[in-house]
Design a protein that fits this description.
By secondary structure, the chain is of the alpha/beta class. It has one domain: 3-Layer(aba) Sandwich (Rossmann fold), CATH 3.40.50.360. It is built from seven helices and seven strands; from the N terminus they run βαβαβαβββαβααα. α1 links the parallel β1 and β2. The protein is globular. The protein binds flavin mononucleotide (FMN). Flavin mononucleotide binds next to α1.
């Protein structure tokens, strides 16, 4: 089994997104999967030019000569594909959005209607099963509303919505550190369950979304950090 995560943070290997992906993939490897995290910021990916040649003149192939054709090969080779991103303007980064738009050659122009009433394009080849990992700078849940709507039609194996994401970088409080370690443990278990069970249990999903820090403590710490950074 192969699991690939496309990480859309401009902060790449230093990102909070990577801090979340890393234990998840570690757990998957412990259960026998082959894993890869692709830092999209390190690749040459141009914007989709909207020519639809991948549906007409060169079916399944994009006319743009950049790294995307190799990434689409990796996409098809994967049993599970994760998209990891920080929340930027209430949704995914432009890096990950651009990657998603360039997946157009993986669909055909033909449209069908799902049971949910929505209209979708047909998959050109069998798609991997998706999962989503988003981390927000703010406390609260509303920053993930667009992600939840986006994933609703995709039958994802897992959705990880981590608020107060900056806390993963460094936080002095020992109780918070302990909860962060529990969060990483739950992600490792989720990775194992994805491989062994093809799903993630409710208990693990609950542990992943347990509060790491109170809103007030986080807001106070963040505001103090920025005061010092500006001084
Ligand atoms: C341009 C920009 C837009 C952002 N927009 C949001 C936002 O809408 N909501 C939010 O909660 N955080 C927002 N953030 C904060 C990031 O989501 C947060 O810093 C995150 O932890 C960064 O994750 P990363 O290290 O994986 O890139 C924004 C940050 C930047 C730089």
């Amino acid at each position: 089994m192969k699991i690939t995560v496309f990480n859309g943070s401009p902060r790449g290997r230093k990102s909070n997104s990577h801090r979340i992906v890393d234990p998840l993939l570690e757990g998957a490897r412990q259960a026998g999967a082959q894993t890869e995290e692709i830092f999209l910021t390190e690749y040459n990916i141009n914007h989709c030019c909207g020519c639809f040649s991948c549906w007409t003149k060169t079916p399944g192939k994009c006319v743009i000569d950049d790294d995307m054709s190799d990434l689409i090969d990796i996409f098809y080779e994967s049993d599970y594909v994760g998209m990891a991103t920080p929340v930027y303007g209430l949704f995914m980064t432009s890096i990950l959005k651009k990657f998603n738009e360039r997946l157009l050659p993986t669909a055909t122009p033909h449209i069908h209607k799902n049971e949910d009433g929505g209209c979708y394009h047909e998959e050109r080849m069998h798609y991997p099963r998706f999962f989503m990992i988003a981390n927000a700078g703010f406390p609260g849940e509303h920053n993930f509303d667009l992600f939840k709507a986006y994933m609703a039609s995709q039958n994802p194996v897992l959705e990880v919505y981590r608020n107060s994401g900056g806390v993963l970088e460094e936080w002095p409080d020992e109780n918070v550190k302990k909860r962060i370690n529990e969060f990483y443990d739950a992600l490792r278990e989720a990775g194992k369950e994805m491989v062994n069970e093809g799903q993630v249990s409710e208990d693990i999903i609950k542990s992943i979304h347990a509060e790491l820090i109170s809103d007030d403590e986080f807001i106070e710490g963040v505001n103090q950090y920025w005061d010092e950074a500006q001084a």
